[in-house]
């Protein structure tokens, strides 16, 4: 019995989209795999670790997942002063013109002063043509993030990203509390919230995503793909 009537007891199945059923209802059984892009920036690898785990979730839900990083905007000299390790060259840099090819897009960013990083914002600032052509209208969008500290701005990072999604007419897909066993757990600190998966890097960046944070990242990939699938199937059925 939980102490508060609005909180579920352990093991309670939380309300959410029962995606498989919903997709069947929408006639999505025969539809092509939803294509989900994960577009991220990561200076020290925390957001990248979440992105890689999220990709597993997308694939587990039957989606095709393409991982992209956004272009660097800082000079080598500045990056060196920030002790940034070399970029993972296995992950291609996103070309914004390909964003319309995705059925849904998940965006990952480290927090900078409570909002998304400038590299990610620079990518958005290059989408004027897409905006003009309405190329991202109606596309599901999700967000995940990393802060140094617990009160460092995970939720403000998500909330301030909504202006980009909104101006493009994208459909923001939060995860709510659909992974209650992790999200309600108070036995250890962990990042992430109803807005999306998240990790705490620590003030010196030495803390890597915990098991719970990775579990939420994988869940977000899965949940987002199922919502994207339902939206795609709904469109195909009309
Ligand atoms: C210029 C700058 C601003 C930052 N602002 C914040 C902040 O507002 N809140 C916070 O908790 N961490 C802040 N950080 C720490 C980063 O969020 C942290 O390095 C990042 O989450 C690590 O993720 P990554 O390894 O994927 O780059 C800031 C770091 C830099 C370099």
UniProtKB/TrEMBL annotation:
Record-level Gene Ontology MF annotations: FMN binding; NAD(P)H dehydrogenase (quinone) activity
Record's GO cellular component terms: membrane
Top-level division of the source organism's lineage: Eukaryota
Domain Flavodoxin-like: residue ranges: 36-224
Family listed: Belongs to the WrbA family.
Listed name of the protein: Flavodoxin-like domain-containing protein
